[in-house]
Amino acid sequence: MNAEPDFLSVEDVIQIHDEQTAAYGGAAGVRDQRLLESAVVTPRASFGEAYLHQDLAHMAAAYAFHIAQNQPFLDGNKRTGLVAALVFLDLNGVTILDPQERLYDAITPLQSAGWTRTGWQSFCGNSAFRVRARGPGNRRRGPGSLARLPLSDIEISRWR
Q1: Residues 147, 113: contact at Cβ < 8 Å?
Q2: What whole-number distance in Å separates Cα of residue 156 and Cα of residue 104?
Q3: DSSP for 53-113?
Q4: Which CATH number fits domain 10-137: 1.20.120.1870, 3.20.20.100, 1.20.1250.20, 1.10.150.170?
Q5: 32, 40, 137, 153 - which has most CB atoms within 10 Å?
Q6: Under 8 Å CB-to-CB from 117, ≥6 apart: which residues?
Q7: Burial level of 7, CB count in 10 A (0-12/13-18/19+)?
C-alpha cells in the first residue's frame, strides 16, 4: 500500500448500521459500544510501522468479520459488517462488483461455528467478484465524513 488507507470511524459504522436498518428493517441501536469500537479499530491495527492486515482486501475482511462476530448492534450485524467492508474499499478507490450476488452467501455463515476470518477471506478471494480500482486520486472523501458517499448505491438485493 502506498497511500495511507482511509479508515472508517465508529460514527461511520453507526451511520451505516442506521441506514441499513432503515432500509431493510431490524432493531436500531448499539448493544455493546466496546465491542463496536474493538471491531472498528481492528483493521487499522499495526506493529511498528506496519499494518497487521497486509492490504485493503484484508482490512475490509476484518471490518466484515469483526462486526459480524462481535455482534455490537441489536440487529443487522452481518449486513453492517459487509457494507462497512464495501464502503471501506470504495473510500479507498476499489469498487466490488458482485453480478452473481455471492456477497450475501459470503457473509451469511459468519456466525456459524468454525467459520473464520481466513475462511471468509478465502471465499471472497476465490469468488467471482470483480474489482474496479479507481486509483488513489479518485477517492470518495477525506477522513471523518461519509457525507458524499452514496450509501444508497450499496444494495444487496437478497436482503429485500
Answers
A1: no
A2: 7
A3: S-SHHHHHHHHHHHHHHH--BSS-HHHHHHHHHHHHHHHTTEEEE-TT--HHHHHGGGGST
A4: 1.20.120.1870
A5: 40
A6: 61, 62, 65, 66
A7: middle
